[in-house]
């Protein structure tokens, strides 16, 4: 049979989803009777002391089952996801939960929330990096940072000392070569400071969880959270002290995640309420709550200084980055290290780079994972400056990049070996599609056209094991059991394709069951674009394990060495035997009084293959922040655009856009195409529309989908102006040479648009979203300068 | 025991409407939205809820053939009208509407949460204008947010039906929706 790898097989979940039959977590209410509902009282202030909190009237309301506050007994909020922490004496952001009510109906719960008597004393707040980083900021979010017990960091090296501001709660430093000496050899310096807006992933299905109290005192949870084993079950077991056998987590279809559902902010509170009330409980965020109470991305401020020779060779990068992480007390996650990894995989920097990176807290919703893990934010400034250097040196933006890129077999700034990079192919494909080295014809009146390009790399972090189980049933049907997430990206289809390919059967011949901790084997979670690689390797190994056992059984039955047996679906092909072909199901012996099945193949009992795949651990870096294994592998992407900017309004319109992905050898070309187009669509949103906006109380005022604009059906140009390319460089340790790809797509879109804006109207953007107002302001400033010059 | 709100119970009224070709009568409070009635009273959970204020479009159903956001249609407004939800679009489990089949074939689906509404809106677009251009299709989809796909495969799927690649869809509807 022809290989299934690199084919656009139909999605295995398409039928369920297109007919409305597929169940999502938010569809489970109908499956139960008497579901109790949870509603939250949230702080209206970004920073306030809670002077009084009286829940007695709420508790007394008929139909109220439980009211929880920050003083709930036996709870260590330090262990909870930051966005799930209930306020005690101090509310840290507008939207933080002050009390949680569980009642018989939603209406009663809402009424009870209104009956809670709470008095606040409003405190000054800090809402962004610039306010928070001041030596004497208006507010200090985590005053106990320095006095908290040692050992709260999993990596002591990340603990910030000699802090510029008391809001700095993490730091990471990295040095390769000698930046200062190298800068002296540069002919030209380009530098700038760059910012990006705060965003919410905004999957279409709001975060929700339903938790059943089981008769044995255990719980069963259905949620649209990610990581049934590694995140949700282990989180509940560890934080709430449940026995593993008493927690079952099921992930139905998920209405999107983009990384945002890796944080179990709703699952832990729902499970806790379930245990407290011994009821089946439901907690469902509204769209507004998704903005103000579920984690946002983290914004990054970067200050980038590049030194270059006149021929375009970059000799050094002096790089500062600060992650703005929201109201995270006891930060153990952020230090700037995650985001600044975006500076590593693409360019050599002449082997002179200094990275000083930090994390800073603010009175905004705590940040967590979102597609790209800070890399779109971290690489924006770098790509903008490289475009600027190219313009100043009158070089092609393609040529300058080629001169500075890391090649396969070379080492990045951490000292890691790059084993796979398709970045050059990626760049050439999009440059050619948009003809970025040529000038567009200006024929749109006040709409001025420009073209821009940018490239990107994104690390994959080793994130633990994936397991897979493959069954060959006695009738010859095949089943796959996995626990990777299916946020919508098509991972389960790719996994099924891999197993079908190993058995040499069509994809329809393999049935996949996924995401139920009582049935499917361990997987940590789907993050860092790792599923194809991690779970894919496990699926391939599990299929091979199953096939090996089948070969043994057939070989035994026909007196052969197992190497003389090939498995093709339900057939075994034999070499050197008196038969050439065997129908494998016919070897499964029926159950009977005279054929007790103590061994061998028996009807009804599948042959089970099992496998574990786990990447190697990383190595602790030294004082210079370097080690020979910091990340796992790298995905790459490039984007080129032709955009038009309205000189009178500042609006940006994308006229043509091309995006390419180095996916390693692709498993499913159609789902990858979907990821590429969906990725650039989302990234145009990052670059031109999406950001949290706050009023003077520190409340986000655009917390709905009419004021927080998402890209829509008219955001990208028509189909003949959207180009996608798969430019693989096989990953040696990936299944069939494949690697993940979903995150890198979003990274180069913003800087490519920024360069197109510069080419169109001559203004340099230093941050995004590039809203019409901001672009117009830059155009007006440009005109003011040129008028001043004329006088 | 199920706890009912007395005030809500006393306010309930009868409403009849046609849903997916079948006359139904519901006895609910007039403040209930069509979305709530579809999901809670009729168990038609293919219609989703994403925002509560008409901005996301995942609750779109067809009312007398026109796409409406069921989250902001109160049940009295829907009474007497004809509603089509995703469950009523297929003729049989193995005889999907051409648009459904085309969405499958074109990988126009990722997380799928917007898909039922997207397919219904696509039907309304083509029913109104069987020769809709890509721009017109995109304009028609403006009220339906898809966060995953970027709309290229969705519009390709709709144009394939428009172009007759799945037979005459109007004829299919004529035969199967009567």
Q: What is the mean pLDDT of chain B?
A: 96
Indicate the low-confidence ranges of chain B by residue numbers: none
| Amino- and carboxy-terminal Cα gap of chain A | 77 Å
Q: How are the strands ordered across the major sheet of chain B?
A: 2-1-5-3-4
* CATH superfamily caption of the largest domain in chain A: Aldehyde oxidase/xanthine dehydrogenase, molybdopterin binding domain
Structural class of chain B: alpha+beta
Low-confidence stretches of chain A: none
* CATH architecture descriptor of the largest domain in chain A: 2-Layer Sandwich
Structural class of chain A: alpha+beta
Q: What percentage of amino acids of chain A are in beta strands?
A: 15-25%
Please give the radius of gyration of chain A in angstroms.
Answer: 28 Å
Which of globular, elongated, flat, extended, rod-shaped describes the shape of chain A? globular
CATH topology name of the largest domain in chain B, in short, is Ubiquitin-like (UB roll)
What is the number of independent domains of chain A? 3
Shape by Cα distribution of chain B:
globular
Count of β-strands of chain A? 27
| Arithmetic mean pLDDT of chain A | 96
Topology:
The complex is a heterodimer of chains A (791) and B (178).
Chain A: H1 14-18, E1 36-42, E2 48-54, H2 56-60, E3 64-69, E4 90-91, E5 97-103, H3 106-115, E6 117-122, H4 129-132, E7 168-176, H5 179-184, E8 188-196, E9 208-213, E10 219-223, H6 228-240, E11 247-250, H7 265-277, E12 281-284, H8 287-292, E13 299-308, E14 314-324, H9 337-340, E15 353-360, H10 375-392, H11 397-404, H12 423-434, E16 447-460, E17 466-472, E18 478-482, H13 491-503, E19 510-514, H14 531-558, E20 565-568, E21 571-574, E22 581-583, E23 607-613, E24 633-646, E25 652-662, H15 669-688, E26 722-726, H16 749-761, E27 767-768, H17 772-790
Parallel strand pairs in A: 1-12, 8-27, 10-11, 14-15, 18-19, 25-26
Antiparallel strand pairs in A: 1-5, 2-4, 2-6, 3-5, 7-15, 8-13, 9-10, 9-12, 13-14, 16-24, 17-18, 17-23, 20-21, 21-22, 24-25
Helix pairs in contact in A: 6-7, 10-11, 10-16, 13-14, 15-16
Chain B: H1 6-10, E1 13-19, E2 22-28, H2 34-41, E3 60-63, E4 66-69, H3 75-78, E5 82-84, H4 98-105, H5 115-128, H6 134-140, H7 152-162, H8 169-176
Parallel strand pairs in B: 1-5
Antiparallel strand pairs in B: 1-2, 3-4, 3-5
Helix pairs in contact in B: 4-7
């Amino acid at each position: 049979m022809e290989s299934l790898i690199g084919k656009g097989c139909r999605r295995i979940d398409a039928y369920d989803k297109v007919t409305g039959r597929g169940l999502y977590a938010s569809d489970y209410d109908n499956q139960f009777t008497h579901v109790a509902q949870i509603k939250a009282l949230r702080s209206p202030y970004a920073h306030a002391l809670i002077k009084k909190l009286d829940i007695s009237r709420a508790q007394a309301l008929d139909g109220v089952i439980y009211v929880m506050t920050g003083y709930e007994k036996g709870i260590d909020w330090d262990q909870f996801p930051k966005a799930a922490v209930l306020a005690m004496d101090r509310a840290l952001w507008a939207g933080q939960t002050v009390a949680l009510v569980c009642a018989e109906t939603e209406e009663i719960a809402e009424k009870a929330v209104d009956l809670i008597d709470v008095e606040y004393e409003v405190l000054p707040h800090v809402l962004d990096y610039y306010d928070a980083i001041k030596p004497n900021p208006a507010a200090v979010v985590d005053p106990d940072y320095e006095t908290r017990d040692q050992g709260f960091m999993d990596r002591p090296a990340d603990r910030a000392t000699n802090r510029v501001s008391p809001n700095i709660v993490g730091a990471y430093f990295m040095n390769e070569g000698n930046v200062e000496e190298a800068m002296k050899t540069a002919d030209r310096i380009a530098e700038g400071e760059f910012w990006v807006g705060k965003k919410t992933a905004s999957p279409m299905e709001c975060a929700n969880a339903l938790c059943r109290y089981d008769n044995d005192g255990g719980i069963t949870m259905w949620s649209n959270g990610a990581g049934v084993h590694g995140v949700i079950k282990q989180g509940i077991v560890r934080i709430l002290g449940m026995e593993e056998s008493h927690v079952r987590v099921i992930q139905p279809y998920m209405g999107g995640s983009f990384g945002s559902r890796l944080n179990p902010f709703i699952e832990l509170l729902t499970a806790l309420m379930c245990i407290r009330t011994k009821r089946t409980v439901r907690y469902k965020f509204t769209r507004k709550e998704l903005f103000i109470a579920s984690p946002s991305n983290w914004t990054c401020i970067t200050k980038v200084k590049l030194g270059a020779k006149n021929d375009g060779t970059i000799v050094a990068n002096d790089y500062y980055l600060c992650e703005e992480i929201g109201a995270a007390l006891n930060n153990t996650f952020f230090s700037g290290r995650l985001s600044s990894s975006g500076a590593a995989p693409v360019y050599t920097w002449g082997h002179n780079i200094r990275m000083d990176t930090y994390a800073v807290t603010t009175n905004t919703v705590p940040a967590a994972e979102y597609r790209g893990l800070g890399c779109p934010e971290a690489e924006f400034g770098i790509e903008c400056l490289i475009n600027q250097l190219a313009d100043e040196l009158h070089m092609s933006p393609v040529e300058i990049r080629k001169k500075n890129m890391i090649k396969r077999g070379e080492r990045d700034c951490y000292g890691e070996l790059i084993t796979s990079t398709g970045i050059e192919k990626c760049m050439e494909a999009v440059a050619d599609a948009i003809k970025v080295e040529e000038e567009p014809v200006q024929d749109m009146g006040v709409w001025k056209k420009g073209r821009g390009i940018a490239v990107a790399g994104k690390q994959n972090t080793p994130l633990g094991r994936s397991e897979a189980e493959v069954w060959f049933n006695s009738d010859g049907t095949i089943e796959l059991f996995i626990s990777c997430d299916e946020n919508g990206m098509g991972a389960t289809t790719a996994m099924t394709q891999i197993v079908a390919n190993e058995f040499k059967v069509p994809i329809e011949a393999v049935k996949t069951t996924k995401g139920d901790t009582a049935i499917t084997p361990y997987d940590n979670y789907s993050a860092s674009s790792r599923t194809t690689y991690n779970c894919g390797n496990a699926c391939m190994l599990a299929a091979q394990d199953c096939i090996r056992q089948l070969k043994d059984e057939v070989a035994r039955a026909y007196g052969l060495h197992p190497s003389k047996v090939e498995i093709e679906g339900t057939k075994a092909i034999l070499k050197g035997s008196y038969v050439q072909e065997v129908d494998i199901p016919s070897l499964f012996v029926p159950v009977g009084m005279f054929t007790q099945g103590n061994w061998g193949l028996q009807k009804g009992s599948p042959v089970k293959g099992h496998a574990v795949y786990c990447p190697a651990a990383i190595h602790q870096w030294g004082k210079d922040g370097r080690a020979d294994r910091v990340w796992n592998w790298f995905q790459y992407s490039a984007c080129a655009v032709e955009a038009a900017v309205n000189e009178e309004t500042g609006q940006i319109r994308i006229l043509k856009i091309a995006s390419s992905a180095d996916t390693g050898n692709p498993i499913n070309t159609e789902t990858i195409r979907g990821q590429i187009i969906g990725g650039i669509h989302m990234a145009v949103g990052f670059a031109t529309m999406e950001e949290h906006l706050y009023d003077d109380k520190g409340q986000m005022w655009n917390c709905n989908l009419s004021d927080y604009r998402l890209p829509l059906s008219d955001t990208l140009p028509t189909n003949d102006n959207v180009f996608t390319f798969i430019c693989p460089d096989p990953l040696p340790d990936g299944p069939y040479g494949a690697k993940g790809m979903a995150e890198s797509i979003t990274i180069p879109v913003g800087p490519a648009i920024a360069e197109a804006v510069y080419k169109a109207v001559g203004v340099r953007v230093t941050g995004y979203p590039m809203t019409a107002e901001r672009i117009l302001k830059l155009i007006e400033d440009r005109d003011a300068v040129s008028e001043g010059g004329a006088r | 025991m199920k706890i009912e709100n007395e005030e809500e119970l006393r306010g309930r009224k009868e409403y009849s409407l046609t849903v997916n070709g079948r006359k139904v009568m519901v006895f609910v409070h007039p403040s209930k939205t069509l979305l709530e009635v579809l999901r809670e009273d009729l168990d038609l959970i293919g219609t989703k809820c994403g925002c509560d204020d008409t901005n996301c479009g995942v609750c779109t159903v067809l009312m007398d053939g026109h796409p409406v956001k069921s989250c902001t249609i109160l049940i009295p407004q829907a009474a007497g009208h004809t509603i089509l939800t995703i469950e009523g679009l297929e003729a049989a489990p193995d005889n999907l509407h051409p648009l459904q089949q085309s969405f499958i074939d074109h990988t126009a689906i990722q997380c799928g949460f917007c898909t039922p509404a997207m397919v219904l809106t696509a039907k309304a677009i083509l029913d109104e204008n069987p020769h809709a251009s890509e721009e017109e299709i995109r304009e028609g989809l403006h009220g339906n947010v898809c966060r995953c796909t970027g709309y290229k495969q969705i519009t390709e799927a709709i144009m394939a039906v428009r172009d007759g690649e799945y037979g005459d869809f109007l004829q299919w509807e004529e035969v199967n929706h009567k």
